[in-house]
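Could you join me in thinking about how sequence relates to backbone shape in a protein? Would you write everything just below, so we can both look at the same thing?
***
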Amino acid sequence: MSKKKKEIEIYEYDYNDNMINWYWSDQIKKNYKTWKPKLSDVKILNLTDTKEVSKVKQEIFQGVIDSEHPKKEKLTGIYKVRK
């Protein structure tokens, strides 16, 4: 049996003029249009300080969620009660 190597797609994020390498923990689901990632799915490669890692994870996650899964606006007025 041959083992397939997983190819990891690595992204870069600019944090205080340092390029931070990161990737999604699930390389298959990241291609699905309906997949909504969690904060724990962001993996940082080249940082060691745990406070900075959590701050960078939060920034990356929030940026992806805001751009890929924007909040829906609630209808107001007469459109609010349409059925």
About this structure: Residues 50-68 form the longest helix (19 residues).
